[in-house]
Amino acid sequence: MNLNSNNIEHNSDFYSSKIIHIENINSNYLIFKINRPSNFNYNAGQFVSFKLSDDQGEFHYQYSIASNNKNKESLEFCIQTLGVGRGVQFWKKLKIGEIISFKNAQGNFNIVNYNNPIVFIAGGSGISPIRSFIYDLLEKNTHIHLVYGCKLASSIPFKKEFIDLSKKYSSHFKIKIVAEEEESDFVIKGDILSAIKNNAHLFEKNSDFYICGSQEMTKAVQNELINSIKINMNKIFIDNA
User: Fold this and answer.
1) Which residue numbers delimit the FAD-binding FR-type domain (predicted)?
2) Among 2.40.30.10, 3.40.50.1000, 3.40.50.620, 2.120.10.30, what is the CATH number of 14-106?
3) Which of 20, 107, 113, 188 lies 20 to 30 Å from 97 when distance is taken between CA atoms?
4) What is the rounded CA–CA span in Å between residue 17 and residue 141?
5) What are phi and psi of 182, to 5 degrees?
6) Would you list the domain boundaries of the chain?
7) What is the pTM for the complete model shown?
8) How far apart are CA 155 and CA 153, in angstroms?
9) By the 8 A CB rule, do 210 and 145 touch?
10) Which residues, in sequence order, are CB contacts of 216 under 8 Å at separation 6+?
């Protein structure tokens, strides 16, 4: 494959970009960046399908884009690396400088009404599309609550970044971060359902709720919102990580 000086190429089916940054978070998550092709466009909330390969052959995995869309230089992704699946093993071996192929952005997880206050609820790597949404909304002065849960306080992707953003945009960006097994500065020990229930009085009237995480987590959160907090179903939007 002939790549230009930025190690980026695009044909009718796939883009190919170079890995430019890798960050491992306590062996639980991996954050990586690739060069963003100049003609690659996406909306916050969308995902891409990566073409991967191992000794068993070619396979595909879909991951939500975690980037700030204003960043025209790179695309960022957050992946859970627990378990022994093919995808996990591939990402654990990833090295800076390698070339990876992916398709155009896809998906319909989007903000329905920018005028309404928004509550984002994310679990683990489900923070990826939520992070992209947040950067899209902060400059619009949309009122945002983020409830973000992980198993360990020491393994929370983008934790410091969200804390810093909540200070910078304190008038309209509030966060609540919870961890099931640890606590630390700005992180409360507990589960995400308790965090929702305990902070429901802070959610603004007419808020829309956007949820992203495992299928089990999103279902439990949806039930909590509908049955305990009495949120109308048409105010809840879900994407499974």
Assistant:
1) 12-112
2) 2.40.30.10
3) 107
4) 33
5) -145, 165
6) 14-106, 118-240
7) 0.90
8) 5
9) no
10) none
Q: Which of 30, 35, 32 is nearest to 17 (CA)?
A: 35
**CB burial string 119-132: b at 16+ within 10 A, e below:** bbbbbbbbbbbbbb
The pair phi, psi for residue 225, each rounded to 5°, is -65, -45
Fold category of 118-240 in CATH: Rossmann fold (3.40.50)
Written as six digits, the tokens of 12 are: 């009718």
From first CA to last CA, the distance across the chain in angstroms is 32
- Domain 14-106 and domain 118-240 have a common topology: no
Q: Token match 């869309």: residue?
A: 69
Residue type, 32: F
Q: Per-residue pLDDT for the chain (241 aa), expressed as one digit of tens each?
A: 223 334 455 555 799 999 999 999 887 899 999 999 999 999 999 999 999 998 999 999 999 999 999 999 999 999 999 877 888 889 989 999 999 999 999 999 999 999 999 999 999 999 999 999 999 999 888 999 999 999 888 889 999 999 999 999 999 999 999 998 776 777 888 899 999 999 999 999 899 999 999 999 999 999 999 999 999 999 999 997 6
| Residue among 22, 52, 183, 169 at smallest CA distance from 191 | 183
